[in-house]
Amino acid sequence: MSEKLTKCGECDMVIVDSRNPSHFRGGTKGGVFVARYTHSSVLPLKGGGTIEIPPSIIYMELQKNLIKIGLTDKQASVYLAALQLGTGTVLGIAKMTELKRPTVYLILDDLEKLGLVARVQKEKKILYKAEDPKLILSDLNQKRELAEEILPSLRAIHNLDPQKPNIKIGDGIASVRNAYVGIFNYLSSHPQEELLIYGSLKDAKQHFEGQVVEMFYRAMSKSKNIIREIGNDDHDTRVYYREAVRINPRHDIRLIRNEGRFFQTDNMLYGNKVVIFSVKEQIFATTIESANIAETYRTLFNMAWNSGKRIL
Question: What is the mean pLDDT of the chain?
Fold first, then answer.
């Protein structure tokens, strides 16, 4: 009996005499016999008898599995061609894989680094020989051993505990810009929440680029959130207060009294995050994400706010 055989693209089932494009995992349906793919070139049919698997299907399955263990599509094709040729030229491998020779050269270099092929000098020609496929298993075992070795260290730095703060540090003026974007994107989707700010305005204006300062003003003017800010009792802060209230009536500022002053930092508190800007020649933006820490800072802010000096 002559059977027409195709391979299912979604699983490991082979469809025989497929008058219906679907496949069935047991028995027969509509005269369609179904068998499970194996690495043998002959396999039994559910309905009895055997059928020979075309080499093309075995090749596709091998290629798919090589990709699963880490090779690219082209690397798998070139490696399989090298295995079939035993020892071959770049031209021969290129013809078999239907890839361009420059591409094959690059892929062979990659496979050589992986230990899957080796160069062989024959007279004046450079040939390539596929190494024993057992090396794939050896390489996977080495990777597994390495993964097991570093696993404890990876788990140690993995932030699994929801109570453990998530801390990110960025440097440069770009980190300030990115932090501003994150802050006002969050606030725009949480209009009921407020933004709390405290720090040295004078230092921020001195070290932040004018474009970044303007970006903050624009974002602040569009914000529908309540903004409360505590600043130093100086001329710059009072001028800033008048401009801030003009562009956003929801923005209120109070001044610290004689307890001290903010120096070379600017701080913003929103949601579960505290952003600390280091405002000096070398700029850093440190973001701490923690509900507990944010709530503690919020309490301290409110204590300072209640004792702060109103601007008349």
Answer: 78
